[in-house]
Each structure stands twice: as structure tokens, then as C-alpha cells.
């Protein structure tokens, strides 16, 4: 405001209100600065995460590539072929686990993880987790002590997710303990809680890391020599899954070099479960060795289709291949398979459309349609069921599972 000389300005606002406005502006400025710092921090975390992701995905690719080059040399003994194949198998399992973790984390962020609740006995949950982590524990020459309660101990929850919780803790114990260490898994009832303790004699956790250890993308010292890396997702998943079961999880460590202990507490399910009424359930068929089946493989990835065919023919099946939907429909006019392995992401006509059209062909109601796809979210399973698929397999398909499915075709 410019005032002619000699005039007095009468302010609308008393001076204390001007101060107030000033303070509000300063508060807003401080809040904006904080938001900016948060954005910068999450930007930094994303960049760091992508770098870690690239690193962790490349790690298993290197031995796979080398093993394949060695296999190509030819003239190898059966023992060497077995060894190289085991390496490929192990690294593929690791890659698959990373991808599964990634998918889980995206479901966590969007709140899409669901758990199926049922009365669950803890002993088999422990057994499944231990079986899956045993290769890593043995490779690192650790001793594993398992303490189970004498009485059955039940919780209410999702057995697969409960095993996943314990598996993550056991794998971490194996990873973050120098070779030849000790891991102890103890399950007990404490009051109204089922308590699982996973303790190790490993690297321990610093007081600085301890309060953040369950946060997404939090990782300790990345320069340590580690058997298998990770993405800083495992413990965030553990906490989320435990909380979805109505429980809690804590981490304890006296510091670097002093080992760590993770304690999972779940509500104990006191009442024994009512005997399940199995009258409405389908009888499980004893597994028959699969006789030769006629199989139609539909996949636009030629390598994938060829490898699948080699495997199926090795098992004695007769295989035809189509690389896209129209080719499949052409073939289907005069070829009636027992089972169709159908990729969903086909160019032009997608797998859902192909499945719908195949189902409409005369005499095709009894043909087993199997979706073989990279998409494995609940939503994808629902969609393939609604489209008329009999089964939904997520790539990479476990060969034994496929052979069992084919055994039940026809
Ligand atoms: P990742 O193992 O992929 O780094 P996690 O979320 O499983 O991610 O673990 C986060 C961090 O917590 C790890 O990077 C590691 O520093 C620390 N940590 C987890 N478990 C243990 C353990 N048993 N002993 C020592 N440190 C651990």
C-alpha cells in the first residue's frame, strides 16, 4: 500500500492478527518443507529399491547362464550334468521367490492380501517351513534345533501364510548367520498365546536398525557377504501377515555379533476344531500314473512351448503346438486333445477368448483346460475360473504338479 505523505494508515487487522497470519504462513511453509523431504526420501527409497532389485535379480541369473554354457560343452559325465542342473534348479527357485515377494509387497501396499481362516495345528506349519528352508540351512552348514510342545497347539489362520511367516524368519536366520552357526525354532503356548521364537547365533542387529527392521525396504549393511540377498521385504511381510492373524512380532538382539531372536505371538485357539464334515467334499482320487495323453500347448513364446513339449514327450504324451489363438482354433477343428495348456497373454486373441471359443466346439466340454500364466493374483484365478478353465497354473510350472494334473485328465 502506497500512502500519500502525511496520511495515517488505519489497518483493518490489528497487529496481533498480522502476527497470527505470519505464524500460519510459517507453519504452512514448515509443513511443505516436511512434505518435500518425505517425497525426496521416498524417491530415494524407490531408486535404492530398483538398484537392489536389479542386483538381486542378476545374482541368480549369472550361475544359470554359466551352467547353461557348461551344459552346452557336451561330453559331460552324468554327475556333472546333475550338478549343473541342480544349480539351475536352485537359482530358479530363488528367482521365483523374489518375484513372489515382489507380488506380495504390491498386494500389501494396495491392501489386497487376504487370508483364509481355519483352525490350524502349528506342528505341520513348522514342518512345511523347515522343509522349505532346509536347503539354505544345510548349504550354510548351520545346526537347526526344533522344539515343539507335547500337546497339539492350534491357532486360527491360513496355513500357507503361517508357514510363509516362519520360512521368512528361518531364511533370514540362515542368511544372517555366518556358516556353521546355530538356529533354534521353539513353539510353545504362553497363556492365551501360541508363541514361536526363532533365534540364531548370527550377526545380530544394531540398536539403530532394530526399531525399523520391520519397515518395508529396510535393510542392514548391504556390504556383508551374504548367501542370498533379498529386497528388504521379508520382515515387512512377516509383520503384516502376523497382524492379519491378530498377532504381533518383535525382534530382539543385544547388538552386532550377538545373534537375534524374532518372537511371533498368535492368539491361541483353545477349543479343538469341530470334526470337519467331509460329505460335501470331492473324493480325492489316488494318483494314477499318467498314461499317454494328447496335449495341445498354446504359447506364443516359442522357447517356452518347445521346452514344455520336450518335457511332455519325455513323459510319453503326444503334443501339438500352436503359437496363437487362431492357429489353435484351426488345429482344434480336427484334433481333440485330452488337455490344453494355454498361455493367457497371447497376441491378438488372448487366452481367455481362446478358452471360451474352444469350450464352444462340439465335444469339447470334457477337455481339460489349464491356464499357464505369469498372472497369479486372486483376481486372475477368479477370471480364469469364470472363463471355463479347469485349472490355473502360475509359471514356472512345477513339473510334478503338471504330471499329476495330466494324470487326472479325461
Ligand atoms: P532382506 O533380508 O531382504 O534384506 P528383510 O525384511 O527380511 O529383508 O530383513 C531386513 C533386514 O533385517 C535385513 O537386511 C537384515 O539387516 C536384518 N535382519 C533380518 N533378520 C535378521 C537376522 N536373523 N539376523 C540379523 N539381521 C537380520
Structure, explained:
There is one protein chain. The protein has 410 residues and is α/β, with parallel strands linked by helices. It contains ten helices and twelve strands. It has helices at 15-73, 78-109, 122-139, 159-175, 234-244, 302-314, 325-332, 351-360, 378-387, 399-407, and strands at residues 118-121, 143-147, 154-157, 182-190, 193-200, 248-252, 260-267, 294-298, 318-322, 339-343, 368-373, 391-394. The protein has a five-stranded mixed sheet with strand order 2-4-5-7-6, with helices on one face. Strands 9-8-10-11-12 form a five-stranded parallel sheet, sandwiched between helices. A two-stranded antiparallel sheet has the order 1-3. A hairpin with a 7-residue loop joins strand 6 and strand 7. Helix 2 (78-109) crosses helix 5, helix 4 (159-175) runs antiparallel to helix 5 (234-244) and helix 7 runs parallel beside helix 8. It is globular and about 85 Å long. The relative contact order is 0.08. Residues 273-289 have low confidence and may be disordered. Adenosine-5'-diphosphate (ADP) binds at residues 172-173, 176, 200, 202-205, 213, 218-220, 230-236, 260. The site of adenosine-5'-diphosphate has 20 residues, from helix 4 and helix 5.
Quick take:
The chain has 410 residues and is an alpha/beta fold. It contains 10 helices and 12 strands.
What is the rounded Rg? 29 Å
Helicity level, as a percent range? 40-55%
* N- and C-termini, Cα separation: 90 Å
Assign an overall shape. Answer: globular
Q: With helices defined by DSSP (H or I, 4 residues minimum), what is the helix count?
A: 10
Task: Tell me the β content.
Answer: 15-25%
Mean pLDDT: 85
The biggest beta sheet, please? 5 strands, mixed
Unreliable stretches covering 5 or more consecutive residues:
273-289
Tell me the structural class: alpha/beta
Strand order of the largest sheet: 2-4-5-7-6
What's the SSE pattern?
HHEHEEHEEHEEEHEHEHEHEH
The ligands found in this model are: adenosine-5'-diphosphate
Number of DSSP strand runs:
12
Amino acid at each position: 500500500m502506497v500512502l500519500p505523505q502525511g496520511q495515517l494508515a488505519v489497518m483493518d487487522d490489528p497487529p496481533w492478527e498480522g502476527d497470527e497470519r505470519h505464524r500460519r504462513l510459517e507453519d504452512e511453509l514448515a509443513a511443505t518443507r516436511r512434505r518435500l523431504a518425505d517425497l525426496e526420501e521416498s524417491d530415494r527409497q524407490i531408486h535404492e529399491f530398483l538398484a537392489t532389485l536389479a542386483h538381486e535379480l542378476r545374482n541368480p541369473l549369472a550361475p544359470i547362464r554359466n551352467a547353461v554354457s557348461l551344459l552346452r560343452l557336451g561330453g559331460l559325465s552324468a554327475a556333472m550334468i546333475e550338478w549343473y542342473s541342480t544349480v539351475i534348479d536352485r537359482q530358479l527357485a530363488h528367482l521365483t521367490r523374489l518375484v513372489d515377494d515382489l507380488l506380495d509387497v504390491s498386494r500389501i501396499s494396495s491392501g489386497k492380501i487376504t487370508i483364509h481362516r481355519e483352525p490350524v495345528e502349528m506342528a505341520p506349519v513348522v514342518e512345511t517351513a523347515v522343509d522349505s528352508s532346509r536347503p539354505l540351512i544345510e548349504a550354510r552348514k548351520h545346526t537347526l534345533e526344533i522344539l515343539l510342545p507335547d500337546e497339539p497347539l492350534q491357532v486360527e489362520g491360513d496355513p500357507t501364510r503361517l508357514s510363509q511367516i516362519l520360512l521368512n524368519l528361518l531364511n533370514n536366520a540362515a542368511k544372517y548367520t555366518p556358516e556353521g552357526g546355530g538356529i533354534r525354532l521353539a513353539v510353545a503356548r504362553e497363556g492365551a498365546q501360541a508363541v514361536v521364537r526363532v533365534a540364531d547365533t548370527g550377526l545380530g542387529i544394531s540398536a539403530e536398525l532394530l526399531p525399523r527392521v520391520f519397515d518395508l525396504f529396510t535393510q542392514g549393511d548391504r556390504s556383508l557377504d551374504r548367501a542370498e540377498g533379498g529386497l528388504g521385504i521379508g520382515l515387512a511381510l512377516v509383520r503384516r501377515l502376523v497382524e492379519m492373524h491378530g498377532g504381533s512380532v518383535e525382534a530382539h538382539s543385544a547388538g552386532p555379533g550377538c545373534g537375534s531372536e524374532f518372537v511371533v505371538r498368535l492368539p491361541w485357539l483353545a477349543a479343538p476344531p469341530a470334526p470337519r464334515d467331509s460329505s460335501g467334499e470331492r473324493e480325492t482320487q489316488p494318483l494314477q500314473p499318467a498314461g499317454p495323453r494328447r496335449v495341445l500347448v498354446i504359447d506364443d513364446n516359442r522357447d517356452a512351448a518347445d521346452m514344455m513339449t520336450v518335457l511332455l514327450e519325455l513323459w510319453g504324451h503326444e503334443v501339438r503346438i500352436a503359437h496363437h489363438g487362431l492357429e489353435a482354433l484351426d488345429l482344434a477343428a480336427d484334433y481333440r486333445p485330452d488337455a490344453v495348456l494355454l498361455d493367457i497373454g497371447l497376441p491378438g486373441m488372448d487366452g481367455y477368448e481362446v478358452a471360451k471359443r474352444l469350450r464352444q466346439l462340439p465335444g469339447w466340454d470334457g477337455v481339460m483346460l489349464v491356464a499357464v500364466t505369469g498372472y497369479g493374483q486372486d483376481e486372475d484365478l477368479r477370471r480364469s475360473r469364470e472363463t471355463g478353465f479347469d485349472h490355473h497354473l502360475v509359471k514356472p510350472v512345477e513339473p510334478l504338479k503338471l504330471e499329476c494334473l495330466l494324470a487326472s485328465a479325461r
